[in-house]
Amino acid sequence: MNGPMSRRDFMAASAAAGVLMASPHSFAHAQGSGQIKVGLIGCGGRGTGAAANAVAASPDVVIHAMGDIFRDKIEGSRNWLKETVKEKFQVTEDRMFLGFDSYKKVIASGVDYIILASPPGFRPDHFRAAIEAGKHVFFEKPVATDVWGVKEIMAASDLAKQKGLGVAAGTQRRHDLAYRECINRIHDGQIGDVLSLCAYWNQGGLWFNVRQPQWSDLEYQLRNWLYYTYLSADMIAEQHIHNIDVCNWAKNAVPVSAVSLGGRQVRTAEIFGHIYDHFATEYTYADGTKMHSYCRQQDGTKSAVWEHIIGSKGKSDANNWINGENAWRWDRDASRPNPYELEHKNLIDSIKAGNPINEGRTVAEATMTAIMGRVAAYTGQEVKWDDLMKMDQRTFPETFAFGMKVPVKDVAMPGKTPLPG
Predict the structure, then answer these.
(1) What is the pTM of this model?
(2) From-to residues of CATH 3.40.50.720 in the chain
(3) Top-level CATH class of 189-335+366-389?
(4) Contact 165, 350 (CB under 8 A)
(5) Is 134 helix (H, G, I), strand (E, B) or coil?
(6) Span 134-185, pLDDT tens digits
(7) C-alpha–C-alpha distance, residues 342 and 50, integer Å
(8) Pairing of β 61-68 and β 96-98
(9) Domain 7-173+340-359 has what CATH class?
(10) Residue 5 has pLDDT above 50, yes or no
(11) Residues sharing a CB contact under 8 Å with residue 256, sequence separation 6 or more, in sequence order
(12) I need a labelling partner for 303 at 20 to 30 A (CA). Which of 112, 240, 297, 333 fits?
């Protein structure tokens, strides 16, 4: 189930899932209740939404524990989930954990299934802890902010496979039925050889939180994590990873090098940290195929969020249509379930079927592709995959405590910025 799946194959697999024997790490051990006890780590908007998606994906899911750095995030998430998922929210006061070590307490609280939705810089440590504890994991993208973190995710994903644990990622296009059908057709050669790819995520600006007098610098950065590379990996990874991942999926490969340009053209105020507000990157695959990647977060600009794949026999938008010798259109009358729910349903069904999916390496590779483009823009140099993968420097802090000073680099200047790890 790791590769693309047609609608017919997906429906057949889903029907079969309920009659296959459970694996040693299935949900049968949940105190014989049949419940799937979910622990939420990171109670912001996406984490809260993911918890609701998990409940919608299976009648067996209950929200059992939650943890976050900030009390207001936990309380806000609790209040919304209680109203939204009703009796499926079963988090008692003693299973609401606060602080930088709250992830350890959620993992140890008797849960079966962990949702990781803290800022991406925390993901490698949280993921490894969950896998070592024998938990199935759904984690949001990107899954790291530096090369050390990417390699840690890959290693923990391999450990998850050894232990028979399921891992799904928040790259929901890989679970969308139309994307699966279309990419399957591309892999079958219906547009011929893939000759070039384009990836776009251009939109307006995003949210930020105005600094409050009682906040330390660290709290301010954590509450505005989007705008700090060590927390978010910059916009090319935090958001544009979706489109980059689709192109890697269509090509069934990762690029070997990248050249890029980018900068802070509009979003230059102190409230926007030090990340860029636009990137334009040319990636090269091993066979010479190019992927052109464009992302922007600037108010008042034209929006464009899509992919475009050109082949020797046709072209495609990767999800709705193929033009050329083998023209095809997604049936708009066909059922197209919410992919944010399908990513949980597919994970749960695969675990129950005794053949858990593992998307850890796939999303790690997409994260690494985005980081390669980011480093190319920051440095103004061509950056090669193999050179980056030789690096072991950890740029994300190993420990956190309020009051500590986190060194934040100045805005990257192409040609003057050393190659970061």
Answers:
(1) 0.92
(2) 7-173+340-359
(3) alpha beta
(4) no
(5) coil
(6) 999 999 999 999 999 999 999 999 999 999 999 999 999 999 999 999 999 9
(7) 11
(8) parallel
(9) alpha beta
(10) no
(11) 284, 285, 286, 384, 385, 386
(12) 333
